Amino acid sequence: MASVTGFLVSPAGAVRHHWFGVRAVLSSESGTVAAVNGSSSQNGSLALKEEKKVPLLRGEEEEEGLAALWDDGYGRRSVEDYFAAAKEMCKSDGGPPRWFCPLECGPPFKDSPTLLFLPGMDGTGLGLTLHHKALGKAFEVRCLHIPVHDRTPFEGLVKLVGEAVKLECALSPNKPIYLVGDSLGGSLALAVAAHNPTVDLVLILANPATSFGQSQLQPLFPFMEALPDEMHVAVPFLLSFIMGDPVKMASVSIENKLPPAKKIEQLSYNLTALLPCLPELADIIPRDTLLWKLKLLKSAAAYANSRIHAVEAEVLVLASGKDNMLPSTNEAQRLVGLLQNCKVRVFKDSGHTLLLEDGIGLLTIIKGTCMYRRSRRHDLVRDFIPPSMTEFRYAMDQVVGSFRSATGSVFFSTLEDGKIVKGLSGVPDEGPVLYVGYHMLLGLELISLTDGFLSEKGIALRGIAHPDLFRPEVESWSSEFSMFDWVKIFGGVPVSASNIFKLLSTKSHVLLYPGGAREALHYKGEEYKLIWPDHPEFVRMAARFGATIVPFGAVGEDDIAELVLDYNDLMKIPIVNDQIRNMNRDSVKFRDETSGEVANQNLSFPVLLPKIPGRFYFLFGKPIRTKGMDKMLKDRESANQMYLQIKSEVEHNLNYLIKKREEDPYRNFIDRKMYQIFYPPETDSTPSFNP
Q1: What does the pLDDT look like over 586-597, one tens digit per residue?
Q2: Staple 502 to which of 367, 381, 497, 676, CB 3.0 to 4.6 Å?
């Protein structure tokens, strides 16, 4: 259970390397540290009893980074933990607003930016309870606590947070400062940003209360003021159902892989445990406090809206589709039109308390929208945080689970002696490695590659992707968290020489398709045809860093769907051809005619006819070591010979798989499912042909 022992003494920006935990928080009054039990000391000294100390968590060393499939802790904490911590904190609540740092956050890795959390109506500062551990790896987290009986006006809160922002900026002028505002905190974040246009701020606003004037509950607020004290105990209970979805709150700790019957059983248990906690809102938000907070919401919305034109910060708005308190989806679209640099993600099934409900973790959202950075300039290579185990499981089960089941991918690799074996044991463990291969239709093989390498090797592939996937225009296609966001979470970067240079210099495992979009959107009759540049683009770069090149082939696109209409067919259809021309005209061009057919960017998404699924097959050839081959850096002929060798290897791998898959008794989807009925995948993977 979360408790007040999970707080650090932490003025915003003051604690950098020493991570000690005590039951205390720093108040907004300079030099005063107030203990949670109410005792305090002056002049910055800390008068606490010995038993109040928490053991040292870490020395001065900070973590350098995270490995793939790291533990982000999401799902271990629940709303029950929020209520338990909030109840304990409110027992002896007094004094002015203050900052605290949850011990769960732990020490972040090196050069992490600071994140200041600004709470909603509850004021506890515990709204990130579900996300503490994950955020604590990437940020130095500080949470604002506004005591129950505090009556600091909105202007005072703006001043308090503004001072913390200025202090943090002075300590780390080259790093951004993140303000995560929940509801009321969203208005507060915008107001602070308006007052600090020269500070590098990134705002994450969860259902910001700037639309409070249009709240669906406005007609009910006068009745709350006239409600007798003895009836108030029912108000927070009713508000809990209006503000959030109890079912989604109770679903946080339920594993996705559980059978439906087990899920229902666990949900029933969680709901039974959660419902008795809801009346405790009466202690967290007493009657007088509730009436004060409603007035605060009104003044906050007016204050923020009157200054929104001055906000120059980078902004991400998270809006709930089932927010029964505020028209958050409409407000998100309004803010996009008013703010200079604003993105939106809509979560259609979530309620007002978005950050306390089951779904995608906040750090995942920040990563997927390319909002995480550790310096003034965003760097997709150096700012990359590998996918966590939670992200991996969510994506593979909830996002692409059906596709994985349908394709039944099987991997083969080649050992140093040339022997082909099932699995990825022939693939190098240490980077830098450059995987060069054939790009299936629509890049369908990417899901299987990501899954296979993370599952078997614990390696996060850094895919070189088309720049169009990272353009702002993609944001207008959908405001929901989409596959484009997941591409970024799992390591996709736009193709460029500088990005490949940085990836190889950091010993990454890089996935490169020389055929690019032209190969992935090929025409009829071009299945398994390599459409590569006429000259080597990557060989000398690999040799410069001594990278290992692994050529690979991937087949199976013709077992999934039939290409009915390609680019040439679609260009014969009126109206459709105009749309394709417009799309191609706006597309990023990064190759010229000297590259050959691959530079042809007259492309479109084809029309496909699905088939009863077959199977995907992958063969990774014998690794080619470039270490010590410095002559290729100057000798174009040597580089070209290696390039042709790699291309030949990929073609050989494709031909091998096309031939050998005929020997697979479980190539057909139905045959595989019948096998899995008798031999569940947990105990034995579905066999394939013998290499």
Answers
A1: 777 766 665 667
A2: 381
